[in-house]
Amino acid sequence: xxxxxxxxxxxxxxxxxxxxxxxxxxxxxxxxxxxxxxxxxxxxxxxxxxxxxxxxxxxxxxxxxxxxxxxxxxxxxxxxxxxxxxxxxxxxxxxxxxxxxxxxxxxxxxxxxxxxxxxxxxxxxxxxxxxxxxxxxxxxxxxxxxxxxxxxxxxxxxxxxxxxxxxxxxxxxxxxxxxxxxxxxxxxxxxxxxxxxxxxxxxxxxxxxxxxxxxxxxxxxxxxxxxxxx
Amino acid sequence: xxxxxxxxxxxxxxxxxxxxxxxxxxxxxxxxxxxxxxxxxxxxxxxxxxxxxxxxxxxxxxxxxxxxxxxxxxxxxxxxxxxxxxxxxxxxxxxxxxxxxxxxxxxxxxxxxxxxxxxxxxxxxxxxxxxxxxxxxxxxxxxxxxxxxxxxxxxxxxxxxxxxxxxxxxxxxxxxxxxxxxxxxxxxxxxxxxxxxxxxxxxxxxxxxxxxxxxxxxxxxxxxxxxxxx
Amino acid sequence: xxxxxxxxxxxxxxxxxxxxxxxxxxxxxxxxxxxxxxxxxxxxxxxxxxxxxxxxxxxxxxxxxxxxxxxxxxxxxxxxxxxxxxxxxxxxxxxxxxxxxxxxxxxxxxxxxxxxxxxxxxxxxxxxxxxxxxxxxxxxxxxxxxxxxxxxxxxxxxxxxxxxxxxxxxxxxxxxxxxxxxxxxxxxxxxxxxxxxxxxxxxxxxxxxxxxxxxxxxxxxxxxxxxxxx
Amino acid sequence: xxxxxxxxxxxxxxxxxxxxxxxxxxxxxxxxxxxxxxxxxxxxxxxxxxxxxxxxxxxxxxxxxxxxxxxxxxxxxxxxxxxxxxxxxxxxxxxxxxxxxxxxxxxxxxxxxxxxxxxxxxxxxxxxxxxxxxxxxxxxxxxxxxxxxxxxxxxxxxxxxxxxxxxxxxxxxxxxxxxxxxxxxxxxxxxxxxxxxxxxxxxxxxxxxxxxxxxxxxxxxxxxxxxxxx
Amino acid sequence: xxxxxxxxxxxxxxxxxxxxxxxxxxxxxxxxxxxxxxxxxxxxxxxxxxxxxxxxxxxxxxxxxxxxxxxxxxxxxxxxxxxxxxxxxxxxxxxxxxxxxxxxxxxxxxxxxxxxxxxxxxxxxxxxxxxxxxxxxxxxxxxxxxxxxxxxxxxxxxxxxxxxxxxxxxxxxxxxxxxxxxxxxxxxxxxxxxxxxxxxxxxxxxxxxxxxxxxxxxxxxxxxxxxxxx
Amino acid sequence: xxxxxxxxxxxxxxxxxxxxxxxxxxxxxxxxxxxxxxxxxxxxxxxxxxxxxxxxxxxxxxxxxxxxxxxxxxxxxxxxxxxxxxxxxxxxxxxxxxxxxxxxxxxxxxxxxxxxxxxxxxxxxxxxxxxxxxxxxxxxxxxxxxxxxxxxxxxxxxxxxxxxxxxxxxxxxxxxxxxxxxxxxxxxxxxxxxxxxxxxxxxxxxxxxxxxxxxxxxxxxxxxxxxxxx
Amino acid sequence: xxxxxxxxxxxxxxxxxxxxxxxxxxxxxxxxxxxxxxxxxxxxxxxxxxxxxxxxxxxxxxxxxxxxxxxxxxxxxxxxxxxxxxxxxxxxxxxxxxxxxxxxxxxxxxxxxxxxxxxxxxxxxxxxxxxxxxxxxxxxxxxxxxxxxxxxxxxxxxxxxxxxxxxxxxxxxxxxxxxxxxxxxxxxxxxxxxxxxxxxxxxxxxxxxxxxxxxxxxxxxxxxxxxxxx
Amino acid sequence: xxxxxxxxxxxxxxxxxxxxxxxxxxxxxxxxxxxxxxxxxxxxxxxxxxxxxxxxxxxxxxxxxxxxxxxxxxxxxxxxxxxxxxxxxxxxxxxxxxxxxxxxxxxxxxxxxxxxxxxxxxxxxxxxxxxxxxxxxxxxxxxxxxxxxxxxxxxxxxxxxxxxxxxxxxxxxxxxxxxxxxxxxxxxxxxxxxxxxxxxxxxxxxxxxxxxxxxxxxxxxxxxxxxxxx
Lengths: 230, 230, 230, 230, 230, 230, 230, 230
What we know:
Eight copies of one chain form a homooctamer.
Chain A: H1 12-16, E1 21-23, H2 29-42, E2 46-49, H3 53-57, E3 63-65, E4 70-73, E5 81-89, H4 95-107, E6 110-115, H5 123-127, H6 130-134, E7 138-143, H7 148-156, E8 161-165, H8 177-184, E9 191-193, H9 199-212, H10 219-222
Parallel strand pairs in A: 1-2, 5-6, 5-7, 7-8, 8-9
Antiparallel strand pairs in A: 2-4, 3-4
Helix pairs in contact in A: 4-9
């Protein structure tokens, strides 16, 4: 793949308010090189997700964060809005998806609060933090296995709750499928869900919510494809 | 089941901002009677979802809407906020879930805009409506089969997009599972998803977003369970 | 099928301490008749499970309880031990499995306590009952959809907790499979699980626990098959 | 992850009678270090499960047992109760889950009896041991593939039988899912089941049974979260 | 569908030794009429399987047996070979598949022995019949749910054992899929399996075995398709 | 495996118009050697698919192309027909399947047009190329995750569209199963589909279409197997 | 639903060469009425698929064909092209999907040849028809259960072969999923596949092939949506 | 595991006519050592299946055959019966399961005929061998992907046909599950099936058939477990 073949969607941030991001997993070294070169030449910032250590080692231009497997080309915004999002995890193993969400929000100008290890098996840990969680505009609930945290949380707080099921666990955890279905079938009203381990997606859903409360210029609509009027 | 056994969560609206709702499916006639009686005595409004014709016929106190299989005990709010939510469907068969969302929003004080039948097989139908859709605060995308509408929509509008996969289709549509997985694996960033055919859940997720932009009294936090300080 | 073909396991109660039970579902009317006749002639008590209304109408000898779909041929024990088992349900729709467990326990001499409708979406309802639940020897947790009740409960009480996933819900609830996997993958230690909607099985598991604390005569081992010493 | 982020549930043993345990699988080296340090500082004993050789090599404080992939930080109880639990396996390949159960019981004060390799393909091997098995208070049946051992066992002994399906086998064994479903659908009454390969969970379920027969102080209930009385 | 469209494989019995059979399920009334007429005109015997009551009522030429849902057009062989096949079932609900096998064998000249209700939950019932079963040339094991009967049986008898998983049970029985996978993953060597509820297929597999021990004329090979010698 | 055991279908090209191809995956080194030797001796061209780097390194006779994992023994046709097929991909990660299709077409005499990275998340990229795509005789749509590209494309162009779902993505992408089901359930009429990642199969389907429009000699029908006239 | 809400894609035939079609399944009576009225007013022809008897009875304007569950509003083309498509089925039960394909082709101007009941269990029936099948431009292979017909056919004929898996069979046939996967994993090169029972889709795929060989005016491209040139 | 823990079923050959075999996969090095030592001391022959290269390297007493992953401790019978079984494979990749069957038969005294690479995509290859195949007493059909070979074969030969689905293929081949379901749902009557890749099981099923035609001493029945006469 030559660099000419890189076909970026450079208008994405302008159109939907989310910066350019690239899913590194499944791409070859050559493809990632070409993407970096194209972005550098255009002086664009890019967030790479699911980028493993070996891949990152070959891309020195990138600010790499191993636990979340994210890399940033270019710079984070200097000023970030605080306390807009609470990211809550059930267990220690859910941290990578939480960090992916945190880094995605930072890349887009928001400083999230991380609240770790408050799974429902020891319920008091969660109850002690509920008021703090409620003070944020959006809540991201990260949980694997039975994902009961998301249901309990959505039953107690009034904020938008976005569930991130994780692949934590084994056997009947089914690599995250049980957590996913459990969140979708939750007894709590109004919990919405993203893909397994998709901290990036949850952050983007949060960004859409946060962006909506701000004024938007007409520039967005100008980039919409137009029907030819048939 | 006697009426004494009805154990309502009467504080739900106060706690999370969403009115009391009951999933009628799977409940016996006796259980539904007991629920209605308990609510009537308390003078409470209740939304019933997935309530079929036969069940509804035995509950005359309820305002029943067959296409959405919803029933309302008590009254809708007199004043509803307009244009806050756009509900967009891919095909005619997706209408029941859309109406369920519409009725849930109305029950909670919001007047949604319905945009029907703009599936991507005839792309111009959707492109012609994009600007209109973008003017709402939240977008609910209702689609079955391949659910491509949700991806295209989330790629073009900046608003929070909540996907409702539907059980429309047959064979490989797998009663909505394909639409569900398709939305979860969407190539568009920040699409969040609710259960199959769950227009109610999508509306509740939208309500959480809409409620968050308004001031909230401290009463909510007073109803939170408290940790005993261990 | 003639009555001669009925091949009962008449020693079951003697061998494993649980009275004879018959799964009615999947059996023809003729087969059920033959079973009743064989039992009547032997003056034996039999518990029928998953017996629907139509089937039961043709078996007047049976004491039928429609909500649990159970029928009893013969009589319940006159004296029942109280407070040995707490049966806790998440929602109203989980009642049939709870009643099936209750009737199975009654048939075997135990009076269970029913605690309904304490699902985690309104957590205070459950927290208010925890001390009462803890006072029983065995806890049966009945929940569908995300089955979060079972995890929360097993995290808070020290008693044996047997989970009964139910087929409540739709879509991603997958007819109880999500609740089942969720319970199996629970973050709470030592929750054990039975088949979907299997209140009977949970009651039998409880009986094994309750029976073990009592003295057992050697008669049981006498009925064990013997190896020929090869 | 710094050590400050470790959020242990230190009251677990007091609350539900089972010592602190950590699922090592899915945690990073850094996370495991932080957990060990926090526990050492508090002088707490911790059981690590699904801890592989490489991870264990970096944690010299831990007493590691490779075949069961368990490690213990701190010490086992000096006095253990004998013959309370029989752990029975169908084949040699089921041993790891059996050893995990054995080590979990030992960590919590019980000395289990191991009975290996008595699968039903050679039925006499099992029949010769039935009387011995019946003399224990709880039976843990560990089996993969068709898991027929669990059904035969539960049909012959009166004790609580907890099934541990294992991932032994290939193809239609479906990494333990067949054994799991087979146990759940067992024709024997009152068999309860834990997750695939979850010897730890079976041991905890046994502990709940064993603990229940002993007197319990009121201290447990004092640590329960309290409802604020709404 | 006119009768001209019936495209029978009239040489099947000559080619593979099994009489013509028609799967009625999924065929329309018109199609079944056309098949009967074509067979009558050719004076051929045909076995119909999975033929429900309503369908059968419209086909008076057929000797219908409701419990097995089989119908025979033409006559059964006058002389049948005895004791060649033992058909063994785990429970009463497995009878329909057993009867389908029995009728298929009878239609092809063999009188099978039926042994009902010897599931492993009450193991002595099976052990008492093992010697009798061993005296047959082929064994058909019919079992649903955990299908443990097939494993125990194949571990104890030396004859060819053909497993018929049945759709008996609910929940984790997965409409026969658990029994099917359980048999395929059996710990007993040399158990072979047919489709769920497929008593017909098991009987045909038995017929292939029974036919092979007899002398075969060269006529069979004459009907084989020939390669053109490329 | 000795070379004698290689049983090629040397008449395939003559019979169905597609050159000999070998699926390398799943074959041992020895088997691949034997195949190469047999082909060399016969002076035949062979296309190898799913041939990984290590395997290819041991087969120096082969022209290997790593990104598509294809290797060609013998030569490509000197003259290739241009613009007959457009191969369109949603993302960069879909490239390997696209290249496999391209190389298969080239091996069979067609020069395809590659159009990369036009997924629907940035719809304008696709809309800009629709007229160009329509000018080809066949369209191959390569897409993973939600596979929405295939539906949008088939809704806009009139040409035969063959979908290749890819294993791109994670979690709910289910290793390509979601893309596969999504394409099969597409709301666009007349989209046909091949196996996951099967660029080879899509190219062969295209070749069947392209070959049909050309005159065919009678030689094909001469190699058909003949019925012996029973 | 009022008639105003009908949002037809009236340009479909002009754009992609396939007449307007409506999937009736999943639509309410009111929705179908509104569609018929809108089409009648516009004097448009519409093909209804998966339209059951009861629905059709309420729509007298429609020419209904029960075996294929198709209905046509308006008229079939007077002149139809012959012998362009061969529709081949494995068994009698596969006929409905074959007829659906036939009717769809007729509605779009092609007269297909039907070849029934040539499944591979009696291979000579298929071999006798191979030359005839090869004389058509496109082959549609309709088969359920193991779907072996499609593989054998695609291995013997050179024409485009479109597989239609059907839901014929039971148990391991998995309502058509086995036939679907079997066709996708076929050992024959270049078989493409549509959804289960989707005779309509196969016919549309054939139409795309047949239409491509004819000259096309530029009108098609004029109706394509246009990118705004970002 | 010490050697004392080895609990062999030494009577298996006497009881069911099949020599002792050990599934090596899933066993640790220590467990395999203990098994070898126990067998050596008893001078017993043992067949190891699914034994990989590394494991085998540590067991020098074993005659190892890498392609089939089988090892034999002790010796093969000197005299083997010829032509009793034909093992037929669809493709080269199916060879390992075929060799496993061949080695198992040899270990038990039968010399099988191997017929490779006759898959139905090139049907003439199979048709040319049908008469030869028919001359054997049992046929083992080994095939992956669509497994169409098994259906065609069972439709043409009269002998017992045992299908071995293999994990050959990718994507919709689902690691052998498609081949497995395809064989189970086969349109050919009397095909029976074993687990995926289970050449050993197919050989054992064949041995049961071959053994049944020979006279058997009463010794078998003497080793049967006996019911105590309850």
